[in-house]
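Folding problem:
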Amino acid sequence: MAGNKKTGRCFCGTVELSASGESVTMGYCHCKDCAKWSAAPMNSYSFWRPDQVEITKGKEHIQTFSKTSHSKRKFCKKCGGHLMTEHPDSNFIDIFAPILEDFQFKPTIHVYYESKTVSVKDGLPKFKDLPEEFNGSGEILPEWKLQY
């Protein structure tokens, strides 16, 4: 893997990975699955092509969980630390942005905003589900809507 490499590791450091080049896209996901998986109201994602990602240490300690065929969530068997999610349908790997060291997270959109548990006013587009180029409706929702 050449140039501009970012490194990351699980919570305990048993599993290490690297990503080369630039992330394809970055943003926030508000879907119920990501919220439950991350135990947070939204998940910060960074999508990479499979050829950009390499497990550099502890591959034997990676466990996979798939609730659906659309995602293969990867975590460390030793500490439970979340690492990434493979998305076979779109051929991307989502490396959870917080595990990457010295990574400049620059989100451009919010996805599955219709499922949000918190409203975010940051000027970024808020997609009901996904942009059309990711097989979504492309519908954009208002940025700020009070929930009652």
